[in-house]
Prior knowledge:
Two copies of one chain form a homodimer.
Chain A: H1 4-17, E1 26-27, H2 29-36, H3 40-52, E2 56-58, E3 64-66, H4 71-95, H5 98-116, H6 122-140, H7 143-153, H8 156-161, H9 167-185, H10 189-221
Antiparallel strand pairs in A: 1-3, 2-3
The structure holds a DNA duplex.
Amino acid sequence: MTKASDRAYSMIRAMILSGELVAGDPVREEALAERCGVSRTPVREALRRLEVDLMIRKTDSQRSFVADWSLDDVGDAFELRAMLEGHAAKRAARNMTDDVLKQLRSCNTAIEAAISGRKPDVATFLDRNREFHALVLKTAGSRRLTTLLTALIEQPVVWRTAHHYSPEAFRRSHSEHDDLLAAFGRRDGAWAETIMAGHIRRAFHAYSDAHLDMKAQERGAA
Amino acid sequence: MTKASDRAYSMIRAMILSGELVAGDPVREEALAERCGVSRTPVREALRRLEVDLMIRKTDSQRSFVADWSLDDVGDAFELRAMLEGHAAKRAARNMTDDVLKQLRSCNTAIEAAISGRKPDVATFLDRNREFHALVLKTAGSRRLTTLLTALIEQPVVWRTAHHYSPEAFRRSHSEHDDLLAAFGRRDGAWAETIMAGHIRRAFHAYSDAHLDMKAQERGAA
DNA sequence: CCATTCTGTATTGTATACAATTTGGGTGAG
DNA sequence: CTCACCCAAATTGTATACAATACAGAATGG
């Protein structure tokens, strides 16, 4: 991960996630190259990867822009995630081992700790949540499914709005993970699939509420 | 499509599809560059694209190999396609217009013509079949879904074995397209989804039969 | 006044040279 | 004989220069 192209990828991704690069903004290779302290070659590679992640959009003439996510777009992505992660959960249930189960439990315990205080530790929540889902995906044991889903998980807007989630939303998320653990413990693929699909759909609505709330606050501040 | 990187992409893809590059073979950038009459830069870009198509696999140290597809892998890919194309069909049914319907009908008529002779015109069949599915995908109207599916459709082994499909398999495929047209005509998303999912699953078994048959023939010839 | 073409400028695409890394094998010590 | 290490060759990663292309604004004709 010390390669220039990886550095460029991480840095540009961070710029988008942090909102430094705003959706719809044009993105010029040379400017980014200078900013990242590398040449255009690794920047081009990074942009290509970010395009697959759907964080960068290219026009017909190959000019790059920061992807703009309308609420419909996000809903669309969540719908696909619900389907694919549900599928992953079903497969994971079939392949589940006691060892993985233990790791998943540990993840969810960490999540519980992160959100139980008065001020939820959002960074830890996101981190452990990501780890939980990554573990399920890995256990599903399908390279192709992994490839498809990683493109969907990197959603800038989601990360920015997570800080506005309600305490209730965090608790729900944790509790649904517990349900998943129960399904996994019984190797019940169909159950796991249902829970996971619902989990993602609920996450969408949590996002949606937080997003609207955030927009309202912004409007109030302006 | 006149750009060097596109040429390189098409040429390398063709080499893999034709079996000129065998699964598991190491792939060196410079050799391909010379072969394609371009420099390494566009070849590198082409290889990255082929990697997301899952036709090229890279080791931890970034060396490229032609991806090997076990029957399980292919089955896995078809399972995902069934799910995603089913979803696409459901959405397409909702957005269907008379114009698109007409184009789809024309596609399927061409398919019928291609397979009704004694010797089926496999190239035309594959072409029109691809066009049919692409049209459905486009009508589904989800950029993300399109991105995900295009990575799955490019399956080298499938194309090579299509020539060994049974006449029955071709006829079934055509007839299922007709069913889809009926579902689209009535804007019945649920019906379209079911048919499409079944269509893809059947295609897998047609592939599977043809593949085994082909392997047997190879063994006999050797 | 509007549309259109032309032209300078900004931006991306490609080639090439060079740097960094990996690989494979040979050599010497144990 | 084996294992570890190190060096030479092969291969990928990066920088840079140049070529091709797209964009925007001015000039021109209707």
